[in-house]
Amino acid sequence: FGLVFISRMDTEEHILNSKAEEAVQDLIKRLSRIPTLQTAQAAILTARTLLVVVTVSRVNVAAALRAVGRRITAACQDHLIVLNVIRRVLRMVREEKERGEGEGHGVMDVKLLVQAIDDYIADVELSAGLIAEQAVDHLHANEVVFAFGWSRSVEAFLREAAKTRRFEVIVAENAPDCDGREFARALVAKATEESRNLTVTLIPDSAIFAVMGRVHKAIISAHAVMADGSIVAPSGIHLVTLAARHFSVPVVVCVGSHKLTPLFPHNRDALHDLLSPAAVLRYEEHARLGPSNVYRPAHDIIPPGLLQLFVTNLGGFSPSYIYRLINDHYDDIDSDL
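The chain above was modelled as a monomer; its predicted structure follows.
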């Protein structure tokens, strides 16, 4: 008798029909073209793909969603936010099943599930605005605020506060990408009332420690928030938080709830993406140096002890409360897809 081995990938092709398969392939292609920091766009694209999977699945919806999660994990290096969306939709599937069982028919209403996913997409789209609305509670007149690199949520946060009060923003350029320069330009680009309330100073990264002593608050963003309250943030922010702790400067993290991740940062190597070192050391310079290894990490992992407050679209929370928020968003069974 011959033995036939069926791989997990072959099984998943049977779980996902042609329309779902096409939607997943399109998502993978589009995710590969999205910059790492545009997490909201990645979350929205993922949720819209899951809408297709949910509506066309001919088998167990949860099995189809898990198959999508495995495909994304295998194809995309940076997939934390995508898996968060899948886990959130799996929670919605169970809630709709429980609703059906409670009503006596025991059948999940796909229309209600689709509406729940649409509501989730709307929450992600509105998250930056909801975070910005809280700026007046955290920024006060004549304060000096520190920002690192370019973050759309931090930009909206600062612009909202500048509508009613005058303060100074010190921006580190975040070499070698130097997106802090674009961030500084964006803050003062238009001659609006809020830009006149902002005094923006651009500094090199080497001056971060020197200026931190005159800063009242450091406002940063994060790529993901882990279950213990630590964050995965753009490389260089760990330096900012260490300098802030030295001078007793509170660190405020502006982050949407779609970035809450029900994982602990035990395997740090899996969270450290490496970018091309060409921006740090040009190839012709490397040739003159001889054999050498040059690393350019995309992210830092910041422990919760260096952070004081998370400002989310759900409100403000301390790092110790993050685990409670994660339990409200996900089920433990979905931690490992």
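The first strand starts at residue 144 and ends at 148.
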